[in-house]
Write a structure and sequence with these properties.
With 148 residues, the chain is an alpha+beta fold. It is built from five helices and three strands; from the N terminus they run H-E-E-E-H-H-H-H. The protein has one domain: Sufe protein. Chain: A, CATH 3.90.1010. Helices cover 50% and strands 18% of the residues. Bound molecules: zinc ion (ZN).
């Protein structure tokens, strides 16, 4: 890929991350939640609480609240978009895929299943920020564990 295109893509991804940070999707809490998990990332000071409403094995609704850096909050926002309506198993598979991307897998970074969360692929180059990006997904993993 020509260098100019890569720079353009990086810019687009940066804008997408900022958009999710400024206008987070599924922000708030669910009074009627099935699962609630709160996690922090002490390295950066990020805080996150994830509420899931399960209908059988399906994630009928999801909300997150918290505060922290743009990476942590944007990643959680992108995640909620992806997992809403999915089964817990499907959501866990996405979490595993996102984890692969955070470990530098180019193949995972090209996986359309990750949707807008692919904008965070570049974070893999910054190990300290990887913890920020994984915070929401780790909360999802904790929620899923509680169900088994
Ligand atoms: Zn952070």
């Amino acid at each position: 890929m020509p260098e100019r295109d890569e720079a353009g893509l990086a810019e687009l991804y940066q804008e997408l991350i900022l958009d999710h940070y400024r206008r987070p999707r599924n922000k708030g809490s669910l009074e009627a939640h099935t699962r609630r998990v709160a996690l922090t990332n002490p390295t950066c000071g990020d805080e996150l609480e994830l509420d899931l409403l399960l209908d059988g094995d399906t994630i009928a609704d999801v909300r997150f609240s918290g505060r922290g850096c743009s990476i942590s909050q944007a990643s959680a926002s992108m995640m909620t978009q992806l997992i809403k309506g999915k089964t817990v198993a499907e959501a866990r598979a996405l979490a595993a895929r996102f984890g692969e991307m955070m470990h530098g897998s180019d193949e995972a970074a090209r996986d359309r299943a990750l949707g807008e969360a692919r904008a965070l692929a570049g974070v893999a180059k910054f190990p300290v920020r990887v913890k920020c990006a994984l915070l929401g997904w780790n909360a999802l993993e904790e929620s899923a564990k509680a169900s088994s």
